[in-house]
Amino acid sequence: MDTPTMDTIYEAISALYDNPNANEKEKASRWLGEVQKSIHSWKIADELLQQKKDLNSCYFAAQTMRSKVQHNLSELPAEAHVSLRDTLVTHLERTSPENSASVLTQLSLALADLALQMPSWKNCISDLIKSFSNKNDFALIEILTVLPQEIDSSSLKLGENRRDEIKNELRSNTEIVTLFLKESITNSQNTHVALKIIKCMTSWIQVRAVNIEEIPQNAVIGFSLQVLRDQNSINTLHEAASDCICALLHCLEENNNNENIERLLFDSVSALEESYHMAVAHEEDEKATNYARVFTELGETFLEKIVVSISGGTPHFALRSLELALVCVGHHDYEVAEITFNLWYRLSEEVYQRDYQPLTESFKPHVERLIEALARHCQCEPDHTQLPEEGEEFYEFRSKVMGLIKDVVFIVGSSSVFRQMFATLQADISWEQTEAALFIMQSVGKNILPEEYTYVPMVVEAILSMPEGTHLAVRKTCILLLGELCEWIERHGECLEPCLQFLVRALQDKQLAYAAATALQSICKACRPQASNHVSTLMRAAAATDELSLSPLAASALMRGLASAIGCLPHPQLAVAMREAVSLQVASLAELVKSGGEVRKGTASDPCVWLDRIAALFRDVDVSITVAQDDHPCLPALADAWPVLQQVLEKYGADGRVTERWCRCVRFGVRCSGRRCAALAPALCGVLRAHYGARAHSSALYLAGVLLDELHATPAAVPHLVALLRDVLPRALALLQRDAGLTDNPDTVDDLFRLCIRFLQRIPLEFLSSGVLPTVLQCATLACSLDHRDANSSVMKFLYDFIKMGNKPRTADKQQIKALTDGLLSAHGSELTHALVAASVLHLHAYMLAEVGEVLLELLQWQRAAGHDWLQAALARLPRDRAAAATQHQCWQFHQYAMRAEKNKEMTRLLREFARLYR
User: Fold this and answer.
1) Which residues form the Exportin-1/Importin-beta-like domain (predicted)?
2) CA-based torsion, 88, 91, 96, 101: positive or negative
3) At 364, is the secondary structure helix, strand, or coil?
4) 154-196 pLDDT per residue, tens
5) Do 507 and 513 contact (CB within 8 A), yes or no?
6) For site-directed labelling of 177, which of 40, 157, 492, 494 has its Cα 20 to 30 A away?
7) Taken in order 691, 697, 703, 707, is the CA torsion positive or negative?
8) pTM score over 0.85
């Protein structure tokens, strides 16, 4: 774009911030965004800051400067960086927080980001202190705060070499910075300045620039503890002081070799208990939250030492931190209690890993008190008529409580928790207390030993004889508890029939129906043989699904329960029952196809409703079949449904949602029938071929993989499967080879390579000799850099399985397969090695590199000599014309270590460390 006039810039800024017309605001925002992207924005931002016409224009200019330095510094020649630095320093010297704190922050970030990207600016910290000291201390504090924070910014891509250089510079200047902050806090009575000083110290602690040994003499840390002790501290200062102490404790956890420092910090923090109680007494919930964070961090810092010490028979002085955390769990606000959850998760992990009974016993009292307090927090409000719904904060909290209790319950034992809650129920308590106790029981229900004869029978009996007038929330939790007791019910068959009858009756209440259906599903699945005696009861309930107006989820759960019961019938009866259950849904689906009305999601006019029910029936039927049997009792039901299913796809195939559910439905039908549905292979392959040719919906590729899984051992089906691959592959690859085709279609990448994996695993010779592999490998090479977890994982699994074929073919056609694989690896190995290395260092997240490492290790082991040259060439092609890059020596070192690596763990570590040099 041409350089706009300053008047035009001011008009656009005014429109962005002051114009009440939303369209004009949006128009101004888009235009100013284009200005920021242009090369002219450097000069425009500088002029706006010099003119200082108004706050909005200054903020726009400062934000532009920060954005340009962060993302577009390469637009300026290196010799212009010094001039830019001097300009930013000048603007900062003229900026005061009284005028605009936000402008000051943006300019500080711009200068910090520039310093980090200017390796030529040696001793930048001391230079900044000299430049600003006694001129604008507030600006200096802001710069010293944001500079450490920006070191690990993913936007800057400094590279590990530069990060190490900067961190060393920070450490070498810690003393002078600490002294400057001490003088600032001593000389200023301004709370806002104190806030900034604490935040600055926190930044330096977080990047490990502060020496733990010097903590006792650190004035800012002492001041932070003083703020936390003072009940009159303002909330913002209190929160900043809490952040500072938490950062310090986290740092201590990684560097805890000085017991004197440990004791000093522990005593200082644990002494804050009285301050916490004062905050609670004065209803200062924000401060209580801060203390909970500090006490939790204290517990986590010392947790490993506490556990090791108790394992050795000696209590640790920091054990009291768990008491402090429990005090916070006792706070009236469940959000304060929730802050401590990670501590309890970590404690349970430590205790579980050690598996030492005396250690487990030591923490029983803590966990008992924890569960008791959590039961109180799980109580609903007395005026509520039902349980919290999914999506509500209280629902999410109770879900977290359930997860935590499941994790820690082994320490006290499930029966103990059941007994504890049962004792609560014996008293004359309110409905919300009753419901909370039942909810805690529900959390441990699946862990109850089947041999428990004391409390569970009384609870089950009480549930089954519950009066109709019982509060709705209590009834719902009782139903869910029955579902969780499914394994106990399986061992106590006399309870099954009354439980089923109770739950079937509960289906008639819309507010209880989903809970009842899921409980039926759980119980029928756990008690399959016994439940088969009650198929008629369950079938009647399934037939009444629409009459009862069950939600789609409730209906599917009921169908799954019915299928579990049907699966244990003798095969002749099973076939009849399955046809009856499926036909009820297929009949409605057939009517829908004929009617041609409008599809309304989740109603009877939605084909997905019926497809999901059919899928549920085939999914859970779980029939026991011997290898010798040629027929399957569920096959008649699938054959009955197939013509209607074809019609559904023909009519609704343009709707991606319906297609996905259709494929899912057929998938479960095929999985259920296995190789016995081979007669349907030509029709299934034909439908998928036609549909994918017209719609290219990725779920068709997934279903093709399922067909291959089930039918690969049937010779008659194999030609249809190979032909299906040949037919769908060109369309899929064409889709992925478009501009941004990989990033726009990760589902296709995922499902296509899952399909290829199955071909490699099931019929490798046919796949390798089909002629499609060169194109598939080219696509896989491009997809190595796709930053999508599932899709990239499928690509890597395919490549690993393919290369493994060249290293260790495991089939009867070993020589032929190895020859074909070797030829393909020779042709594509070099490019593939480069793609894997480039993806690792330039494109993929660190957590994705384990699978890349597995592939690279296998590839380098295929032929050592070739692998040596491929890796060397791949490293030589990595970008060098950037600040974040490995040195020649580091590339050589990586090559040496990678060629010696024997285990994936080793290769993954090498890739992660090497990648950090480019990020």
Assistant:
1) 103-245
2) negative
3) helix
4) 899 999 999 999 999 999 999 999 999 999 999 988 999 999 9
5) yes
6) 157
7) positive
8) yes
